[in-house]
Amino acid sequence: MLSEPLPCSCGLNHIVHNGGLYKRPFNEAFEETPMLVAVLTYVGYGVLTLFGYLRDFMRQWKIEKCQNATEREEQKDFVPLYQDFENFYNRNLYMRIRDSWNRPICSVPGAKVDMMERVSHDYNWTFTYTGRVIKDIINMGSYNYLGFAQKAGTCQEAAAKVLSQYGAGVCSTRQEMGNLDKHEELEKLVARFLGVESAMAYGMGFATNSMNIPALVGKGCLILSDELNHASLVLGARLSGATIRIFKHNNMQSLEKLLKDAIVHGQPRTRRPWKKILILVEGIYSMEGSIVRLPEVIALKKKYKSYLYLDEAHSIGALGPSGRGVVEYFGLSPEDVDVMMGTFTKSFGAAGGYIGGKKELIDYLRTYSHSAVYATSLSPPVVEQIITSMKCIMGEDGTNVGKARVQQLAENTRYFRRRLKEMGFIIYGNEDSPVVPLMLYMPAKIGAFGREMLKRNIGVVVVGFPATPIIESRARFCLSAAHTKEMLDTALKEINEVGDLLQLKYSRHRLVPLLDRPFDETTYEETED
Amino acid sequence: WESFLPSQVLVQPVQLICLYAPAYHLILEGILILWIIRLLFSKTYKLQERSDLTPKEKEELIEEWQPEPLVPPVPKDHPALNYNVVSGPPTHIITVNGKECINFASFNFLGLLDNEKVKSAAQASLKKYGVGTCGPRGFYGTFDVHLELEERLAKFMRTEEAIIYSYGFATIASAIPAYSKRGDIVFVDEAACFAIQKGLQASRSNIKLFKHNDMADLERLLKEQETEDQKNPRKARVTRRFIVVEGLYMNTGDVCPLPELIKLKYKYKVRIFLEESLSFGVLGEHGRGITEHFGINIDDIDLISANMENSLASIGGFCCGRSFIIDHQRLSGQGYCFSASLPPLLAAAAIEALNIMEDNPDIFQTLRAKCERIHELLQGISGLKVVGESFSPALHLQLEESCGSRENDVKLLKRVVDYCMNSGIALTQARYLEKEEKCLPPPRTRTGQICIELDCCLGFLFPQIIRMSVLHYSDFTLDIQVLPLMALKPDWVTGLFQYGTNAVRGRMLNFGTGE
């Protein structure tokens, strides 16, 4: 057992290259999948597929009852709406463990949560609610990083007041009649919080990406996107009409090569130089638990005169000594990031997203953002929740509560990650990231882990293909400042037990430095025609 | 040669050549053979390699390259840059830029935004669940209120299933690409709203625009496709086909000819997706939208999408239809899977709004009557024409004749809007992203909120003020008729005085003296 903090050679290795850029140790690890586990995982999928075909065969011959919803009789001769493979996967693989997702809860999604008990009498095709409530499940799944998901307290009181004054909706867009004084107040506060000139808020985090990237880049521009970027960034990039090239996850060599090639070779076919290059990265990657190598990204961006779009959905509030995100975590200046994007859903316990940056950028977005012109603006009570929670983090409410929460989260993160590693699990990501993926690998263990943990009154998130690579199924814990040491200890004890039961302790403590991972020079290019 | 060995066949000629050929010949041939071998094993010839740049040259190129700025500068006086600031609740009477106005600009059709019942339902939910959900639906972001709202919406619309999204815009924009993929064909009305356009773009399908509400044009395209299909039946068997239309068009204010569309649907085996953001909670006897308006079986529509941001005065959107279709979005709707779920208080507000709609079906009649009255009153203003159906709660006022350029038209309409605003009537110019829209509608002023709770006096005041504004900027008008006050129908006048706010009364008096 390793008692000291893990000697992560990747951090050290990297400091040799770009050490000057980092003001703090950067310890990030992705332990290699053991060969036997990888083989067994593929075998597992093989068996599932075989049984899938067998059961489809039986369904076709009416030996087994087919529970799928079917097309209307009148439309049987239409072109089929779904492709076969997609349905095959849902019917035969996803359906077996469907109970691990969409579990309905009936309380505030805080550190402990109440869940509606549901049972299935037909192998997950349908669920029935028993009417019972499973009380006080330790919630390791919600993105409640700073514990602002509360049903009482200053934020809730302020939101209630605004709700009774303004109502719930807005019924108009920002450019028409939906620009309330509350929105203006929020945007000024966000700009101050981020340390940027100006900011704009939007009604949905997902749409902040997908509706604003097209306003920034277009045909003749190049987007360099991390391979593990969130679906919203990918969608935004696609909608923009720009050329998209993908670099290896958090791999700066791959990024630099793409940047260099792009500028040297220009656009394909026409050979014109690119109009501009936009790099899309996230602060914390929600499935890997890794933190972007921001100092290096910024150095590259400056060297190659490109622009940087930083999505802080998971990192805002959750990183940095005063919760100002990944920029503060690395001790950098927000001026070096061209577009600071983030969401209010996670750390602030509200909904929506923002973009911060230079005044020219925000003025441009106010005029041309799809969201400002065509989408309804943020609901006033939600805005108030953001304002009060943000002020709390900034200490402007006159208390130390916010700062204490940020520190608590950092402590919880280090403690929880360290203990899991000591137990022998394979844990991905950065040691400071509150997103903690625990590798399960095999498809059968996805469902088993989710169910076993729920039996022990702990709510966890499990993810498999297609959200992750096919053999890298995992469980994910999201830490919160609201978790007490007792809760974490209880959770750790149960995880340890289930880990033994399901034989999940794969780690051989042989950490592979990130830079030694095979670096594949082929890049995937996508052009919108 | 008694035993004939195969090797001898080869060996003998070689021996012969070696014996009789001159030495220089042999050497030359040897070199040639080596040359061929070299050619065979050398790397393939590449154009790029020959023009390979030295690292220094590359550096120079990188040094030379000057990108465009991230965003072009926006002129300070751009009309969209300075938003109107609404202080206080955005209800019937709003304070815009410090001035109190009657609100004709929000989509609060049923006046549910400041309904006390809705507010208290949202309050109760806030006390129980807090504000945010801190997760997508899949990962502990499904609340019992979400399930209840989905069930209620499905029941209200009389469909099998409904699915809710946390953002109105994302609803249809996520639903279309969940079904229609690369290679599929979508027939879409050219006046379709921006959310539909974005959904189509995300789907990367083959898009065929037909003229607005022109069924002959649609049928022409469908026929064209049919002949195309006959040429390549194998491809046709896997090419999905969709028609995407709006119930009540956001950009034009008119309805789609749904009965004809249904006929075409079965004739050419195309699925219909219907966007009902404006018609849901407005049209039909019970507010079920365009299907109820035309008396059409809702099962004939494959998918109905609407947002909850207009009539329901909440946030978010929903899709409804048969489970066979809707359920697919729970894994494939991007805005559903990858986004945090709707804050429970907004879901609770929507449920309460549905309750009110179910308990008072007459509100839809009242709304319709008001829309028709206003539509009638707005007729005959010289210089301006009203676009759209008489029962549409969003009316578009458009210049009868353009003043030459779009820019000038926009400016002129802005003056009309400003004048109205100064007179205490908040209207809005319909905003479009001119570069992005597929078929840009002409500049218009939109009156969104013809709210049923507004007293009928406003129905009088409103066109009056518009008329006044036209009078005021009479450079483009010919003959202006301003109704004298006395010619008012008596019930309007009583209605007017029943409406108690001093602001309105004061304005009314000004009008009297103004004439």
What does this protein look like?
The complex is a heterodimer of chains A (529) and B (515). Chain A is an alpha/beta fold. Chain A has 16 helices and 16 strands. In chain A, strands 4-10-9-8-7-5-6-16 form an 8-stranded mixed β-sheet, sandwiched between helices. Chain A has a 3-stranded mixed β-sheet with strand order 2-3-13. The longest helix of chain A is centred in the first third of the chain and has 26 residues, at 35-60. The termini of chain A are far apart. By secondary structure, chain B is of the alpha/beta class. Chain B folds into 2 domains: 79-106 and 361-508, Aspartate Aminotransferase, domain 1 (Alpha-Beta Complex); 116-359, Type I PLP-dependent aspartate aminotransferase-like (Major domain) (Aspartate Aminotransferase, domain 2). Chain B is built from 22 helices and 15 strands. In chain B, the strands form 3 sheets. Chain B has a 7-stranded mixed β-sheet with strand order 4-10-9-8-7-5-6, with helices on both faces. In chain B, strands 1-2-3-13 form a 4-stranded mixed β-sheet, covered by helices on one side. A 4-stranded antiparallel β-sheet of chain B has the order 11-12-15-14, with helices on one face. In chain B, α8 packs parallel to α9 (194-203). The longest helix of chain B has 19 residues, at 23-41. Chain B is elongated. Chains A and B meet through α4, α6, α7, α8 and α11 of A and α4, β1, α5, α6 and α7 of B.
Strand order of the largest sheet of chain A: 4-10-9-8-7-5-6-16
Structural class of chain A: alpha/beta
Q: Which pair of protein chains has the largest interface, and what are the residue counts?
A: A-B, 122 and 122 residues
CATH architecture of the largest domain in chain B: 3-Layer(aba) Sandwich
The number of E-state strands of chain B comes to: 15
> Radius of gyration of chain A, Cα only, in angstroms?
24 Å
Calculate the terminal CA-CA distance of chain B, rounded to whole Å: 133 Å
User: What is the general shape of chain A?
Assistant: globular
Q: What portion of residues of chain B belong to β-strands?
A: 5-15%
Q: How are the strands of the largest sheet of chain B arranged?
A: 4-10-9-8-7-5-6
Query: What global shape of chain B is seen?
Result: elongated
Q: Major β-sheet of chain B, in short?
A: 7 strands, mixed
Number of helices of chain A: 16
Indicate the multimeric state. heterodimer
